[in-house]
Design brief:
Length: about 200
């Protein structure tokens, strides 16, 4: 039997509106958030505290022992003692600064001065930021293999940053000859042992 147009119209108006079910949507979002949290890689931000060298208003006698400085120049890295002068000159390789030679030399310095923890990094103008970070990492720590794992060992973690002194070429004087890697000239303070 056919229903009349009026009856169908009344049925349409008398129907309750459909309800939106949010439970399945909430379930999907819960699973999605859980999956994203489980697979997310959280990067650790490492913050290093750098100490600026104090301004020297009056001259004071330097303390006995090594005052380690690592000078970063465009064509070389130079390890020096503030009191006695250059200890090692490490020319750049074809790939850039010789970071491996720097690490090897600093390990020898640390063996002679095990209690020493501070070092100054002196930079020429326009030194790339990546070079600064690489030198800081090499001065602070080095990696040692223990079985299948690599462990970081401490070298000189208390780092100060400053400007490198002008070279002889920049001041107009005769350039000094670059010396190869040489042993440490200063004696370990208090031990009486000479390198």
């Amino acid at each position: 039997m056919r229903r009349s147009y009026q009856t169908r119209k009344l049925e349409r108006h008398s129907r309750k509106p459909e309800q939106l079910l949010l439970v399945p949507m909430i379930d999907i979002f819960t699973v999605l958030v859980t999956f994203l949290l489980m697979t997310a890689v959280f990067s650790r931000t490492v913050i290093l505290q750098l100490n600026l060298p104090p301004s020297q208003t009056e001259f004071r006698d330097p303390p006995p022992g090594l005052q380690l400085e690592v000078m970063v120049r465009k064509d070389l890295i130079q390890v020096a003692d503030r009191n006695t002068g250059p200890l090692a000159t490490l020319p750049n390789t074809s790939g850039g600064p010789n970071y491996d030679a720097l690490t090897d030399y600093l390990k020898r310095v640390k063996a002679k001065f095990p209690e020493k923890t501070d070092a100054s990094i002196l930079l020429e103008a326009d030194t790339p930021y990546d070079t600064l970070v690489q030198v800081m990492d090499r001065v602070r720590v080095f990696e040692v293999s223990e079985g299948l794992n690599a462990v970081q060992a401490e070298l000189f973690p208390d780092i100060s940053i400053g400007d490198a002194p002008a070279t002889a070429e920049a001041t107009g004087a005769a350039p000094a000859a670059a010396s190869p890697v040489t042993p440490i000239h200063a004696a370990a303070s208090g031990s009486g042992a000479h390198p």
